Amino acid sequence: MSGYPSVTPSSKVPEEFLFLCMLHNIGAINTERAITIEEIAKWTERETGEIQYNLTKLEELGYVAAIHESTVDRFHVSPSGIRKVLTLYS
């Protein structure tokens, strides 16, 4: 998977958490570095529908924060999301 950390075949990490790691790895880690769905699509080569689905799940869990601006929404990993990413790597 492009942009995702390597995970052993036996590990069962949900897709949305791999997506969270990718957001963290590309640096979308605070409000100043938040990115749009279109930018995420360029980085991940994924469809916007899949991206929106993962963002919604992660936002519900508190791992992603959204910035709603007048013309576009931007997203970044929340502090809780950063902690979650670090647990996935340990």
Chain oligomer state: single chain
Structural class: alpha+beta
Question: Roughly how much helix do the residues carry, as a percent range?
Answer: 40-55%
CATH superfamily: Winged helix-like DNA-binding domain superfamily/Winged helix DNA-binding domain
Number of strands: 3
Radius of gyration: 12 Å
- CATH topology, by name, is Arc Repressor Mutant, subunit A
> What proportion of the residues form beta strands (DSSP E)?
5-15%
Mean pLDDT: 88
Q: What is the CATH C level class, in words?
A: Mainly Alpha
**Gap between N and C termini:** 20 Å
Query: Which geometry do the CA atoms define?
Result: globular
Largest sheet: 3 strands, antiparallel
**CATH architecture field:** Orthogonal Bundle
Q: H/E element string? A: HEHHEEH
- Neighbour order of strands in the largest sheet: 1-3-2
Q: What is the number of helices?
A: 4
The domain tally reads 1
